[in-house]
Each structure stands twice: as C-alpha cells, then as structure tokens.
Design brief:
407 residues; alpha/beta; Rossmann fold; Alpha-Beta Plaits; 6-stranded mixed beta sheet; 4-stranded parallel beta sheet; 17 helices; lyase; TrpB-like_PALP
C-alpha cells in the first residue's frame, strides 16, 4: 500500500492505550442465524453495549485527553445528532470539562435527555446536522471554546480505528468489514487499522439512500441529501474532508440501502440477536440484505455502531416489519348495509383462527352508494400464508377484499 494516511496505525495504537479501561471492550460474536439468512459468515461488533450505547465514546475520549489544561478549563463544544454528544458529554463530565452540545431540533428525545443527563448544556438549533454544525462553530468563536468535531478530526478517527483492531483480534479470519458512513470518521479509522493488520481485507461502506453524500462524492456526482431517514446518525449532507481522502484511497466500495432495509435490519437484530440497534447501527446488516450477491460467502464483520433509538420509533419499526411479513394486516372489505354482515365476516375470521385487533366501520366518507359501506379490519396472523388463506376464504364467500399495503 503506497498511500500514507494522515492518521497512522501508530496513532490508533496510541488511542487504544489512552482510552483503555475507560471504554468497554465490546464483544465481537458470530451471528449464526443471520449468517444462514444472508449467506455470508456474519460477525457482529456490539458497540451498542458501550455505556452511552455507541462507538463515539472512543474518539471523543481520545480527543479530550489531547487537550491542554487551558482548553479543558474553558470547555468544549460540539454539534451532533446524538451519539457523539453523549460520548463527549459523558467523558467530559468524568474529566471535569464543561460541555455545550448543539443538536438539530428533530433529534430523538432519548438522545437529548441522555445528553443532558451527562451534564451537558444542550442547544437545539436548525433542522439538520449541518444547521447545528454551523451554529456550534459560531458559538465556538463567541465563547472561546474548543470545537470537537464528530468525525473530521485525527483524534476522532484514531479512536474509531480501535473498533477494527478489536474486531480482528476476536475474529482474525474476517475478509471484509461493512461499515456505516455518515461523515466518515468510523470507516476512516477502521480502514486504516484493518488494512494495516490485514492488507487484503475488503472495506465496504454503507449509506442511507436518502443521504448518499460519500457515495456521490466518491463518484464525482452531485446528489440530493434530504428526507427523514431512520438512520439519522448517518444522515450527513457533507462528509469530512479528512475522512473523504482516507475513504477515497482505502475503502473498496460504498453501497446504498433503502429505508425498508434499515427497518428490517433493526427488527431482525432485536428479534434474532436480542439487541437494540438504531437505524445507523443496523446499516451494515441492511447492506447484506440489499446486496446479497456482494457479500455471499464472505466472512463479514459488522459494527453495530449505536443503539440509541427512540422507543416509540422502535415500536413503530417493529409493527411495520410485522405488517410486511404478513403477521399484521389491515384488510378493507366491502359490505352491504344490512344486519349480520359484520357478524358473518367476523365468523370467517374465527374459522381461520385469525385474531381481530381493530375494526373501522365507514359509512360516510366513501365513494360507495348510500347503502354500501366498507370496513377496515386490522388483524394478526401466524404468517403470510395464513393471511393468504384468510383472504381467499373471504373472497370465496363473495366479499370484495383489498389489503392495505405499507410503503
């Protein structure tokens, strides 16, 4: 390898020594069921088990330990969608360093409250990370604080690189790492470490399709970054310049994943691995589901980089996944306005042993004739085949049935 990255493996080793004993050495474990599902040999690095539930602690602590006494006294400021803020706030409080965090207004409540719980002064500003970032740089100058960048900083990159060192210590046979990309700090550090330890290892980055900033920049293409992604932790419009140079030279490919695959991955990790992962943390698995041919037969390491997901959002994701798998459904059934119609329909549900959850009877807001009506029935089935049998049974009795599909 002729490219000499601005952050070296020696910097990563120094970071590992500096943060040792102050961050959790999280497990890297083989995922047998996910391997069977994806066709890849899957290993998971449980960074969602850090105290603040994300890998960001590593780089944040490494940066804080590099500050002078004067910088520590004045305090630090950062912009973050959540995980960087929590890692920085937690370790800054432990070291007695005042902290201000600027967060976008749509940041999940769980991340705001947890950051405040670590003693930080939280300022909510703007709709996106970029809005919060610009405001933080303004406050930095106004208040003479030290800005701690969430990804575009050598100390942050070196700290992130320790994730790959630990993964390859625990699973030395890995031949590929599939790493989420927002600003690029995690994949930059991991690529430097992994390529040093194992030059032939392949590094694949993953971005949400709504925010393909690194994907587009790698190709020299103008891309649109917008939308309300489940993976808000990697919803970054502009990757770091330091990170981009490293990614351009050391990352083999960047792939995109859709929101549906992110939702499915969050649900699978909870259902199969019994671990809570946020959208960004599930991006690696989402890539395996979206691009199976790319990963099949490979020994792939996936860092579950964060687990801070709002509980209401998690519940919604799980219910939507049940609906897509056919275990939950909403059926729209056309009925005649006469006694016994709803009873007869309910009897067919009972015959097929399908549980009715909700019934919505609609007479007014419909394009049907005045004597016609529709009823929406939300129900719970064993699986998609069970649902199909119910629909066939209803239609065989003369009912007009339509399934209300999810996007």
């Amino acid at each position: 390898m002729t490219y000499k990255p601005p952050v070296t493996f020696e910097h990563i080793q120094a970071a590992q020594k500096a943060i040792h004993g102050h961050v959790i050495r999280t497990p890297c474990m083989h995922a047998k069921t996910l391997s069977n599902i994806t066709g890849a040999d899957v290993w998971l690095k449980f960074e969602n088990l850090q105290f603040t539930a994300a890998f960001k602690e590593r780089g944040a602590l490494n940066k804080l330990l590099s500050l002078t006494d004067e910088e520590r006294t004045k305090g630090v400021i950062a912009a973050s969608a959540g995980n960087h803020s929590q890692g920085l706030s937690y370790h800054a409080a432990r070291l007695g360093i005042p902290t201000t965090i600027v967060m976008p207004k749509p940041t999940p409540i769980v991340k705001v409250t947890q950051t405040e719980g670590h003693g930080a002064n939280v300022v909510l500003h703007g709709e996106t990370f970029d809005d919060a970032f610009a405001h933080a740089r303004t406050l930095e100058k106004k208040r003479d604080l030290t800005f701690v960048h969430p990804f575009d900083d050598p100390y942050i990159v070196a700290g992130a690189g320790t994730v790959a060192v630990e993964m390859l210590e625990d699973a030395p046979d890995l031949d590929m790492l599939c790493v989420p990309i927002g600003g690029g700090g995690l994949i930059s550090g991991m690529a430097i470490a992994a390529k040093h330890l194992k030059p032939d290892i392949e590094i694949v980055g993953v971005q949400a399709a709504l925010y393909p900033s690194m994907y587009g920049k790698m190709r020299g293409e103008a891309v649109v970054c917008d939308g309300d992604s489940l993976a808000e932790g990697i919803s970054v419009k502009s990757p770091g310049e330091l990170n981009f140079q490293i990614v351009k030279e050391m990352v083999d490919e960047v792939v995109l994943v859709a929101e549906r695959e992110l939702e499915q991955s969050v649900s699978m990790l909870l259902g199969i691995e019994k671990t809570v992962v946020e959208g960004a943390g599930a991006a690696g698995l989402a890539a395996l589901l979206a691009h199976p041919q790319r990963f099949r037969g490979r020994k792939v390491g996936l860092p579950l980089c964060g687990g801070n997901i709002d509980t209401r959002l998690l519940a919604n994701v799980l219910l939507r996944d049940l609906a897509r798998s056919g275990r939950l459904a909403r059926l729209r059934i056309r009925l005649k306005d006469r006694p016994g119609q709803l009873f007869n329909v309910a009897r067919l549900f009972e015959e097929h042993q399908v549980n009715i959850l909700e019934v919505y009877h609609q007479r007014v807001f419909t394009s049907l004739p005045a004597k016609g009506l529709i009823t929406d029935i939300e129900c719970e089935t064993r699986d998609a085949a069970h649902l199909d049998r119910l629909v066939e049974g209803l239609r065989s009795h003369g009912y007009e049935v339509r399934m209300i599909e999810l996007a």
